Amino acid sequence: MVIEKDWVVVLKALAHPTRLRIVAELLQSTKCVTSMQDLLPASQANISQHLGILRGARIVDFTQDGAQRCYYVCRPELVGGLLDLLRDAPAPPA
């Protein structure tokens, strides 16, 4: 089995609870950093750092609205499918 570099980058980017929450929120609708700050227990600077990692993995992108950047998931089928698989997976044995 060939492991694609892109797969590793995507999985590493999603391997953080805050980034998973960000992506789950963005799958629902496009959001600006300030609105995400109201939804997540993280500072605006921390959310921006996480968004930078997600952008680097080509999971999210943004549109510019004046000084605000509003983010969206640019690969919704991939991310949605991965999250569905995780939700539907049986719990690991104790």
Q: Give the averaged pLDDT, no decimals.
A: 91
Run of helices and strands? HHEHHEEH
Terminus-to-terminus distance: 29 Å
Query: Which structural class do you get from the secondary structure elements?
Result: alpha+beta
Number of E-state strands: 3
Beta-strand percentage? 5-15%
Rounded Rg: 14 Å
Instruction: List unreliable stretches of 5+ residues.
Output: none
Shape descriptor reads globular
Please tag this protein with its features.
single chain, three-stranded antiparallel beta sheet, alpha+beta, globular, 5 helices, 94 residues
Descriptive account of the structure:
This protein has 94 residues and is α+β, with helices and mostly antiparallel strands. It contains 5 helices and 3 strands; from the N terminus they run ααβααββα. Strands 1-3-2 form a 3-stranded antiparallel sheet.
Tell me briefly what this model is.
A hairpin with a 2-residue loop joins strand 2 (60-65) and strand 3 (68-73). The mean pLDDT is 91. The chain has helices at residues 5-14, 17-28, 33-39, 44-56, 76-88; strands spanning 31-32, 60-65, 68-73.
